[in-house]
């Protein structure tokens, strides 16, 4: 990837938070912990190449007043998954935002839904997206489909830096995204060709 293209690219690191990644977490994604080293490497490589890193996280009102209806039962007594300010909402160990990175807070699956992400990317000159994180059938997939609908020039999902509850669910969703023109390299392939 040419330097000019790198400066027009952003990496979205989606939901790499304790409540999704750590075993026993209320929203635990079974494959999440295995991709942490790949996500760390992808973020490091992106920074080296001048690719803008954006941390996309869920943060909810502790009482669940901003959560989807089907999840409201998880928020009782002012405690719930990824509640703003909680340990569960923090990024998993090893992922550390830097000053020049950016953070987007979402309350739904897509990083674009009801956020200013698209406007921010457009005004920052971003035309290409690289996606890592969890989980493939929900937040990854919905963000990717929105990115394609919004006409980003290229959308890439790094296969081994994303995860789902099972390998079968992960691969099925990767195939669906590949079928709509999304690039799906391994981390090694992406690093080699970027």
Automatic annotation (TrEMBL):
Range of residues in the leader sequence: none
CDD domains in the record: cysteine_hydrolases
SUPFAM superfamilies reported for this sequence: Isochorismatase-like hydrolases
Domain of life: Eukaryota
Every Isochorismatase-like domain range: 9-188
Pfam families, per database record: Isochorismatase
Family: Belongs to the isochorismatase family.
Protein name per Swiss-Prot or TrEMBL: Probable inactive nicotinamidase At3g16190
Source species: Dioscorea cayennensis subsp. rotundata
Gene this protein is translated from: LOC120280325
């Amino acid at each position: 990837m040419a330097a000019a293209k790198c400066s027009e690219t952003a990496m979205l690191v989606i939901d790499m938070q304790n409540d999704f990644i750590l075993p026993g977490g209320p929203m635990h994604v079974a494959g999440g912990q295995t991709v942490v080293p790949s996500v760390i490497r992808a973020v490091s490589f992106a920074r080296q190449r001048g690719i803008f890193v954006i941390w996309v996280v869920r943060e909810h009102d502790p009482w669940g007043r901003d959560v989807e209806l089907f999840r409201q039962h998880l928020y009782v007594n002012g405690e719930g998954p990824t509640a703003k300010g909680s340990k569960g909402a923090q990024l998993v160990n090893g992922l550390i935002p830097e000053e020049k990175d950016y953070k987007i807070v979402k309350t739904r699956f897509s990083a674009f839904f009801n956020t200013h992400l698209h406007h921010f990317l457009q005004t920052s000159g971003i035309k290409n997206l690289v996606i890592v994180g969890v989980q493939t059938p929900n937040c990854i997939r919905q963000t990717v489909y929105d990115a394609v609908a919004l006409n980003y020039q290229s959308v890439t999902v790094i296969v081994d830096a994303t995860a789902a509850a099972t390998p079968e669910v992960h691969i099925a969703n990767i195939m669906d995204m590949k079928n709509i023109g999304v690039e799906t390299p391994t981390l090694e392939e992406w690093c080699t060709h970027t």
